[in-house]
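Figure 3 (text version): structure tokens given as input.
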């Protein structure tokens, strides 16, 4: 079946990446197979969209502002720090956060990358405040210099499963950016329920 042939070509491409000594005349592949493998190699290679993420690399001070009463209410601030670094050969950036939340230690790990095949930015996050993995996908808004992500989130306190959340990373300048978390349930006006303020150290 074609599916298994495609999988075989993908595995062969991975083998080529990790092994030297293959001569061109030793590759007995059809032109179609070669084209498929070339396409796969392009899909798995970091490019210009990944390079854009280089902005985040480094150490940051973070202030998390939680609007506990909903958008527009008084915020509770929590301090923390974050480190961004490249992982997996420049395909993803990893964010490690240490801070506090309501008097307790807070730790999280997040990843941002760009999916060449789906042509969208992707994000995943894990923390010590949940047993779930958060996944989002989005685009870069050139006009507003911001990454805009959407994804499902479960809300144990209300029993909601898979409600849509909007997350916006707004780049202010070289040393400052802000992460806004929006809960669309509040309507078309102010929906921001959390704000993460990053300042480069």
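Below: residues designed for each position.
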């Amino acid at each position: 079946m074609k599916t298994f042939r495609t999988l075989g070509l993908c595995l062969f491409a991975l083998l080529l990446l990790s092994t030297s000594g293959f001569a061109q005349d030793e590759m007995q592949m059809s032109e179609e197979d070669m084209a498929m493998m070339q396409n796969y190699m392009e899909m798995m290679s970091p490019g210009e969209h990944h390079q854009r993420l280089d902005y985040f690399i480094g150490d940051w001070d973070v202030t998390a502002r939680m609007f506990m009463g909903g958008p527009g209410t008084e915020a509770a601030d929590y301090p923390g720090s974050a480190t961004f670094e490249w992982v997996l050969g420049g395909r993803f950036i990893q964010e490690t956060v240490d801070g506090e939340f309501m008097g307790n230690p807070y730790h999280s790990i997040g990843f941002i990358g760009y999916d060449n095949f789906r042509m969208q930015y992707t994000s995943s996050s894990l923390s010590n405040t949940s047993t779930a993995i958060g996944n989002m996908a989005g685009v870069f808004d050139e006009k507003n210099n911001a990454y805009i992500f959407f994804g499902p989130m479960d809300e144990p306190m209300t029993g909601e499963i898979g409600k849509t959340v909007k997350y916006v990373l707004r780049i202010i300048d070289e040393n400052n950016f802000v992460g806004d978390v929006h809960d669309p349930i509040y309507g078309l006006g102010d929906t921001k329920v959390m704000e993460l303020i990053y300042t480069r150290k």
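The chain has two domains: 2-45, 49-200.
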